[in-house]
User: Fold 3'(2'),5'-bisphosphate nucleotidase CysQ from Sphingomonas immobilis.
Amino acid sequence: MSPELDTDLARQIAETAGRILLELQKSGLFDGKALGKAGDRVANAFIMEALATQRPDDAVLSEEEANDLARCAQSRVWIVDPLDGTREYGEGRTDWAVHIALAIDGHPTIGAVALPGLNLTLCSGSPVLVPPSPDRLRMLVSRTRPASEAIAIANALDAELVPMGSAGAKAMAVVRGEADIYLHSGGQFEWDNCAPAAVALAAGLHVSRIDGSALSYNNENPYLPDLLICSKPIAGQIIGLLAQADAA
Assistant:
């Protein structure tokens, strides 16, 4: 299967799931936590059916499905988060996303991140030109539980804090030039960052664990606790500051 066809499929599935979620959000049949729960289920059902039809020989790891370890023996694994930012979606905000990624031999090769509330999809096959950083850097943090490491690095760099919702929305804010650093250390899973990592890598950004090591996917345990996305020129400084803080 060609990368172009896989990229087109990832984008189409992400955008279609996004439209379904928007219609569900507009229906008025659910609100709050009930809306988020319904969104998770409906989007996941569509994505699983679409992948089963279009890529029946590939494995799938989804947040909303049981962890089938048979996937670990396969080279091609779709890693999906049907609704990243369930709370934000249920609250009627725009900072939520749909993640569709294809990991090949553990590498985040193909990715599409739909931001339906913004009518925007970013994908690895159409990398964007990341604008240069301003004089004062902007650090993305969780709007509800900002990580202490991110706060410490922001203080060390005199960076402005930018609260935002889902992981996908934050990662894409760096790709779009709305922020400069996404540093997460509070615990994530592979589906939280595989698609964002693929898109950010295609855009030429630095993407790694917070110790600088490469991200690895399709592991038996999908827990992937930390992530750094930023421009390459500042990556070394951030990783060095984190290492110093860890050694202190």
Notes: The helical segments are 3-27, 32-54, 86-90, 148-157, 167-175, 190-202, 232-247. Strands lie at 59-62, 76-84, 97-104, 107-115, 120-123, 138-142, 160-164, 181-184, 206-208, 227-230. The two ends are 49 Å apart (CA to CA). The domain at 3-123 is CATH 3.30.540.10 (Fructose-1,6-Bisphosphatase; Chain A, domain 1).
